[in-house]
Specification:
- The protein has about 240 residues and is of the alpha+beta class.
- It has one domain.
- Helices cover about 25% and strands about 25% of the residues.
- The chain is built from five helices and twelve strands.
- The strands form three sheets. Strands 8-9-10-11-5-12 form a six-stranded antiparallel sheet, sandwiched between helices. A four-stranded mixed sheet has the order 1-7-6-2, with no helix packed on it.
- Strand 8 and strand 9 form a beta hairpin.
Length: about 240
Amino acid sequence: MALMGECVVTRPSSFKEVVQQSVWVDAMVEEYDSIVHNSVWDVVPTPEDKLVVSSHWLYKVNQFVDGSVEKHKAIFVACGFSQVKVIDYDETFSPIARYSSIRSILALSEQKGWKIHQMDVKTNFLNGMIEEEVYIEQPEGFDTFDHEPHVCPLKRAFYGLTQAPHAWYARIDSYFTGLDFTKSEEDANLYHIVVEGKFFIIVLYVDDLILTGDYQLIKSYKEDLAREFEMKDVGLMH
């Protein structure tokens, strides 16, 4: 039984159920349009001698602190468990900062009186490039061809692929090091830079960036990041 004022959110259990609800159809269209906009794949006839990675839709509901619905979100993902090592991927890496690093940065910010800001990278894995030849099933409900089976050879990393986190990390790591950030020897997801005696720190946690240090540097690098990647400025961290 739900408590008074509590918002009970249910997610669809099948694609048949999804297509009957406009909020979920709109969410899938938004996701598909983002994939097309980022030129993630081509659509070609299914090759006879290639492994095709299976795929499926995931559905989630983003909620505000009070439990009310913020957004219905559909995510099209590859089933990474169907990939074969060496053929479909090689290196893997998870771009997740250590909790000890986050705690240390929070403590340092408190000591120095720095504000802590947060940015969210939209479609973060789509920013990574993959070197392997990987084919994925077309999204259910968005088949380009009705007759001859077609699949999607990927041009970019994709949600669910085993190598997607590594590809995203390689992309953003190259960006940070290109700006002369220094990477921590203890945590590969922790970066800092000193500009004219002013300190600035970035912590990477998958698709979230924690920024702290000199306010003018925070403001400047936020603008640089937004030009390089599609990002949402979350503001001060809660």
